[in-house]
Design goal:
The protein is of the alpha/beta class. It is built from twelve helices and five strands.
Length: about 300
């Protein structure tokens, strides 16, 4: 409670003058504070309403959005809000987005890998969709120390998760199914597109090389042991696990893990805002890029 508020609450009993003197509060300051009380009450009410809207956006994001994405969502809904105010109210209300967790690699290097050039060179961008992809494998902890494994195919232009696959093994079929899903999402046309990965045994296998040849995909791989060479794919997988597990160590069942990933992947592509895309979702960004290209 402020000293001004204390004077206002007790002046009928002790008198304003005595309280001001005892609390070392200026008379002019007290009366200025009292005159501005309606404005403060109005601001506080507005903050309460905005905090409720912030909490709703946060809930809709499954508790993953921090202040930048919450601000972008509110602005899209017609709310003219300042990002600093949103951050302040989130701190005050204990509304927190999901933070980074330590990454654990699931890829097993293949020491006898046939060399494939690095066509990405840590440049994780693309001028248009369906030109450059990255892929990786991550583990999904379930049950009593068991795991599922997720393979992903990410478009570097729109950050869209174009293909993915989950299995209880890390055989070549896992990454092959993810690439097949990506081909299906692109209407079967991946010709000329680059697919970049690490040197895990699945990606250097003859079967995966044959599948890439079938789809007309140009293979690219980083250096052995060079995690930064595939940072975009690893960062994506880390975000997925961070936002689905939300601090938990594992899912209770394999079915729960599959459902969580499916739900998150759908929201990621259609609704989740990406700072690198101007706070648009991947599919919205692709649609906008296509519209601009046709209009040019």
């Amino acid at each position: 409670m402020s000293r001004f508020q204390f004077v206002a609450d007790h002046h009928d009993v002790y008198g304003v003058k005595r309280l001001l003197m005892l609390l070392s509060v200026s008379r002019s300051g007290f009366y200025r504070w009292r005159r501005t009380a309606p404005a403060r009450a109005e601001r506080e009410h507005a903050d309460q309403v905005l905090t409720e809207d912030i909490a709703e956006v946060h809930r809709e994001s499954d508790g993953t959005y921090g202040s930048p994405r919450v601000t972008a969502e509110l602005r899209d809904r017609g709310r003219a809000v300042n990002h600093k105010r949103v951050a302040r109210l989130m701190r005050r209300g204990g509304i927190v987005g999901v933070h980074l967790r330590k990454k654990v690699r699931a890829t097993i290097p293949a020491p006898d890998a046939v060399p494939v050039p690095d066509l990405i060179g840590r440049d994780f961008t693309a001028a248009e969709s369906n030109r450059r992809y990255v892929g990786d494998i991550t583990y999904l902890p379930v049950g009593d120390g068991k795991f599922l494994y997720l393979a992903t195919v990410l478009d570097l232009h729109s950050k869209r998760l174009v293909g993915w696959s989950i299995a209880d093994h890390m055989r070549t079929e896992l990454v092959a199914d993810a690439l097949k899903a990506a081909a299906g999402a692109r209407g079967g046309d991946l010709r000329g597109a680059i697919f970049h990965s690490d040197n895990g045994a699945q990606y250097v296998s003859k079967d995966f090389a044959a599948l890439c040849h079938q789809f007309g995909v140009v293979r690219s791989r980083g250096a052995v042991g060079g995690s930064a060479d595939n940072a975009a794919a690893e960062s994506f997988n880390a975000s997925m696990k961070r936002e689905t597990l939300q601090g938990a160590k594992r899912w209770p069942t394999a079915r729960a893990a599959r459902l969580a990933v499916f739900r998150w992947a759908t929201r990621y592509n259609t609704r989740r805002r990406h700072s690198a895309l101007g706070q648009q979702s991947p599919i919205a960004y692709e649609q906008r890029s296509t519209t601009l290209a046709l209009a040019a």
